[in-house]
């Protein structure tokens, strides 16, 4: 296959300043509603980019689990690689790749750890097996094989049999406070529409159009 020969036109629609909400969170909610209505796969999946203590970047897909004026929420093990990297450098980037709609959204800002009280309602709403895996998995650590992990899950299953599963103290949420948000709408002949919101010192937002 010749990768350089693979291309298509982006014809799903345009984006103008008049179409944008003055608040990027409200604009994101509008686009998310449209993504949900279109029934694209995994609309809440986002690429989380962090850097480690040597300055090397790393990315992985996580799921958006909450959104408010405070920011974008995801959950993880606090001993994971992503959590260690956020501890070193709190500034992260999120990317929502809505390819089926010829859209993407990029969010940049600091990630702040949520309290146990803030994280607990979501933990207890998860399927029981997912709660057990949260206890069993030492996320990002080496594993001898799947059998080792499955055995640990069964061990915790027995330990918590007939009882509610408590939330581990090493598990919880982060909220990413947006400081920059970019909305990208693909256009024909690579004439894409890009708008970037930047948070001001008074928490208002400036909006500028970017060249494609």
UniProtKB/TrEMBL annotation:
Aminoacyl-tRNA synthetase in keyword set: no
Domain Pyridoxine 5'-phosphate oxidase dimerisation C-terminal, residue spans: 171-212
Top-tier EC class: oxidoreductase
Pfam families: PNP_phzG_C, PNPOx_N
Cofactor: FMN
UniProt function note: Catalyzes the oxidation of either pyridoxine 5'-phosphate (PNP) or pyridoxamine 5'-phosphate (PMP) into pyridoxal 5'-phosphate (PLP).
Name used for this protein in its record: Pyridoxine/pyridoxamine 5'-phosphate oxidase
């Amino acid at each position: 296959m010749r990768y350089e020969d693979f291309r298509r036109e982006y014809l799903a629609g345009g984006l103008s300043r008049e179409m944008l909400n003055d608040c990027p969170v409200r604009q994101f909610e509008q686009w998310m509603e449209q993504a949900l209505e279109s029934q694209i796969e995994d609309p809440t999946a986002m690429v989380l980019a962090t850097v480690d203590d040597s300055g090397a970047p790393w990315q992985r897909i996580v799921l958006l689990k909450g959104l408010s004026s405070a920011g974008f929420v995801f959950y993880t093990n606090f001993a994971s690689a992503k959590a260690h990297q956020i501890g070193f450098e709190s500034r992260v980037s999120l990317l929502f790749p809505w390819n089926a709609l010829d859209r993407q959204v990029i969010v940049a800002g600091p990630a702040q750890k949520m309290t146990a009280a803030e994280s607990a309602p979501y933990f207890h709403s998860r399927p029981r097996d997912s709660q057990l895996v949260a206890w069993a998995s030492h996320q990002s650590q080496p594993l001898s094989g799947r059998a080792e992990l499955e055995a640990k899950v069964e061990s915790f299953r027995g330990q918590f049999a007939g009882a509610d599963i408590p939330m581990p103290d090493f598990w919880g949420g982060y909220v990413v406070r947006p400081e920059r948000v970019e909305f990208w709408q693909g256009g024909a002949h690579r004439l894409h529409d890009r708008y970037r919101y930047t948070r001001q010192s008074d928490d208002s937002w400036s909006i500028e159009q970017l060249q494609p």
